[in-house]
Amino acid sequence: MQKPARSKGSDAVGAVTDRIGRRLWRERALTSCGLLQKNGLVDNGTMKIEAGDVVVAVLHSPREKLLGVLNEISPAGITIRSIDLSYFDDWCRSIAEGEVHLRMTDNFFPMWRVERMSRDEGTDEMPSMTDQFEARTGRRFEHQ
Fold first, then answer.
1. What range defines the domain where residue 125 resides?
2. Residues 24, 93: one domain?
3. Same domain, yes or no, for 101 and 60?
């Protein structure tokens, strides 16, 4: 059975449409996290995460969950001073008891590894990780 002939024009239109779709998706993603400026004005939506914010970052390949202070965010990636979230309870206990503990480390992760990042915010029912740390240790999280 013979395939129906395609015109060269339809392939070109499809390629242009794909390119425009990818560009719009990338533009929306960058705008939502405050990386893209429109007409000289930064999009100040509720999702803007800035340097100095305490964030929870979920990375993939390999999968990691980090709690830390965001130093920089750019299209290339994020620079974050953090600890592994699985170590959080032991870390708090060690600091509170004055034991030797791992320090937060500065790391750069390329954007292709960043699956999700959210600001560490609590609710009325559940305090943020930062609030939990400060309650357990009596120290400021940002100074660790």
1. 54-143
2. no
3. yes
Helices then strands, each counted (H, E), the chain: 3, 7
Q: How far separated are the first and last CA of the chain, in Å rounded?
A: 69
Question: CA 48 to CA 8: how far, in whole Å?
Answer: 43
Angle separating helix axes 88-96 and 129-137, nearest 10 degrees: 30
Question: What's the chain's length in residues?
Answer: 144
pLDDT digits (tens, 9 = 90+) for 23-59: 666 666 665 555 554 444 444 445 689 999 999 999 9
Using the 8-state DSSP alphabet, how is residue 63 labeled? T
Do 117 and 56 contact (CB within 8 A), yes or no? yes
Judging by beta carbons within 10 Å of its beta carbon (0-12, 13-18, 19+), is residue 124 exposed, middle or buried? exposed
What's this model's pTM, rounded to 2 decimal places? 0.67
Give residue-wise pLDDT tens across range 84-140. Answer: 999 999 999 999 999 999 899 999 999 999 999 999 999 889 999 999 999 999 999
